[in-house]
Amino acid sequence: MVNEKEVFAYLENVCDPEVPVLNVIDLGIIREVLVDEKNNAVAVKITPTYSGCPAMNTIAANIKFELLAQGIKNVTVTETLSPPWTTDWMSENGKRKLKEFGIAPPQYQQKNNPLEEDAIVPCPHCESKKTKLISQFGSTSCKALYKCEDCLEPFDYFKCY
Amino acid sequence: MTDKLVSYLLQLADNSLIYGHRLSEWTGHGPELEVDMALSNIALDSMGAARSFYQYAAEIEGGDKTEDSYPYLRDVLKFKNVILVEQPNGNFADTIARSFYFDCFQFYYYSALQKSSNERIAAIAAKSLKEATYHKRFSSGWVIKLGDGTEVSKQKMQDGLNQFWDYTGELFKPTDLEKEMQEKGISPNLDEIKTLWEKSINETLAEARLTITDTTGPWHHSGGKIGKHSEHLGFILAELQFVQRAYPNSEW
Hints:
A: about 160 residues; alpha/beta; 4 helices; about 20% helix; B: mainly alpha; about 70% helix
């Protein structure tokens, strides 16, 4: 019979289709896992990242496929909005993987005024802190575009949410 | 009460849907790649917020209603968005002017709506606020860049701001429905939002070295919230609803 720990291990196989180095645990979108051993059933509660994120349906479907493939008979995946997802929930492991992939991981949000620019975002390639925001909106909802003024490489920043 | 709550939800959803649809018209046509992506991203966030409100409305109404019933199967007179968001994009500065007014409104509206007595609405607002914060930063930033830019960009930004000014009054003019929702603690006090909005708008305009010439006085366009729209909404729906009208009940 499957237990909660095993389910979390299986969920590590489910990746974000848009940022494939991150799995759903790294992203911090798994809010609850309920295991009903008697009926070999698992209920997973996830929270969306961005409201309009087109990857959410795929992620929910992939969670279902993964758990079914692991032999769990009844899998339900539901969404919850509250409390809203935040990049502060991203795992340290996830942040390390993002950086290795060339995407600057989100900075912690300890700002009084959310309308201010994010703190210094170090370059994921050369660690330089001399970086410049090119665009608050990048190739996906969750990313902003930056440029390093030392190594001159452009890079994506997984922005605070 | 249920009917009224649904009406209010549709007003919130329609604002985001029509605003998002207008911005999505820039996709592939932005003045530069980064702006194209930014406007498309903001459009996507707005569609996401609209979906959250439509889904809730569909759950309340039940029956065969789904989140798609509202955007695809209602005619113009049933839409409750403010007239500002259905106005055509114009040039880039015009679009920025419209976004500046509306993003700023959404930011303070969602901030207040997080405290709604309706938990589901409060949850959607808390989520959408995180996104609206980036939208406000984007459009305010461009007002400053264009306003404090060249003579041409300054003039275009000023024209845009003047053009949409008399559509902003409707944002803060409560309908009977909104008054009732406010009494129940569901919707926020529009007077308080107006004060915050004006302060923020004026700060940005000062930095951009622009001013608003109020040529219309107290008269502003209104009616969208009760279904009386400008001629533009019909054209938007003709495009947005085409597939459902031509092939009823078709699904992806």
